[in-house]
Write a structure and sequence with these properties.
Blueprint: E1 25-30, H1 35-45, E2 50-57, H2 64-72, E3 77-81, H3 87-98, E4 106-109, H4 130-155, E5 161-166, H5 182-205, E6 209-215, E7 218-219, E8 236-237, H6 239-251, E9 260-263
Parallel strand pairs: 1-2, 1-4, 2-3, 4-5, 5-6, 6-9, 7-8
Helix pairs in contact: 1-6, 3-4, 4-5
């Protein structure tokens, strides 16, 4: 149960102002079936200037809410089944998007794994498993850079666009004082490096695209649920609250911010 005492946010208005001058913007949310990704889809649907929203999911069994929402939204929300560990799936999804729109103005990578039936955060070196490490990197970092690779034709335009990825403060090397969580920390650090390097290349190839990493804070999702016990009451965010905060960060971005790592409150985080 959510422990933070938060009021439900009112309907989000005038968010993503960096894109508000674009009359018919297009958005992509990767990992949209639940959690923060699903929250972003709901937020984007409230923005009248967002014309098309593409949302990816991996398993239809866990994407019922998203698919139901799409059936209620007409042609505005289109769902694509994508396994982000398979580059062929990413390439095929981008090809489908290209058949509908000429540009993506906002792409948000919300896929992440910390634990599952076969994976738990490592507390010591003895618990490191090569197979689990590889999987963490595939989901938390490699998928994002492959997405950046295939989205390039949809970003290389004259209008402003944003490529944002959900990262984590524990991926900051200089902020690591507790140790542990080897795979999650390392894969998020790799994500940050991928995004920084992408930002440099995009500055040449897609000069109107802003690339950023975003730390959402501890959000009440399946990813964080086993680890919420010691989270202070005012630091456990609802999905809606997290999306509102990150939307504001996105809204305030400019080209000079490309290649940076931002926390939910808009402060820059160290690499």
């Amino acid at each position: 149960m959510l422990r933070a005492n938060q009021k439900r946010s009112n309907k989000i208005q005038n968010q993503y102002s960096v894109l508000s001058e674009i009359n018919q913007a297009n958005a992509l949310v990767v990992g949209a079936s639940q959690g923060i990704g699903f929250g972003f889809v709901r937020s984007l649907l409230q923005q009248e200037h967002i014309q098309h929203i593409f949302a990816t999911y991996r398993n239809p069994d866990t994407a019922k809410q998203l698919l139901d929402l799409a059936s209620q939204s007409g042609d505005r929300l289109k769902c694509l089944q994508v396994d982000i560990t398979a580059e062929s799936d990413i390439a095929a999804a981008v090809q489908q998007i290209q058949q509908s729109v000429k540009q993506i103005h906002l792409a948000i990578y919300c896929v992440g794994v910390l634990h599952d039936q076969n994976l738990t955060p490592e507390k010591s070196l003895k618990q490191i498993n090569a197979e689990n490490l590889i999987y963490s990197f595939q989901v938390n970092s490699i998928g994002a850079v492959l997405l950046a690779k295939h989205l390039m034709p949809l970003f290389n335009k004259t209008e402003t666009s944003i490529f944002a990825s959900i990262s984590a403060k524990v991926g900051s090397i200089s902020d690591n004082r507790l140790g542990g969580w080897y795979g999650y920390r390392a894969s998020k650090a790799a994500l940050n490096m991928f995004l920084k390097t992408t930002a440099i290349e995009y500055s040449r190839r897609c000069p109107k695209t802003i690339v950023v990493a975003l730390h959402p804070g501890t959000t009440d999702t399946q990813l964080s649920q086993p680890f919420q016990k010691n989270v202070p009451l005012d630091k456990l965010f609802s999905v809606e609250h997290t999306v509102t905060l990150l939307s504001q960060v996105i809204s305030d971005l400019s080209l000079k911010d490309s290649g940076e790592f931002f926390s939910w409150d808009g402060t820059k985080l160290p690499w």
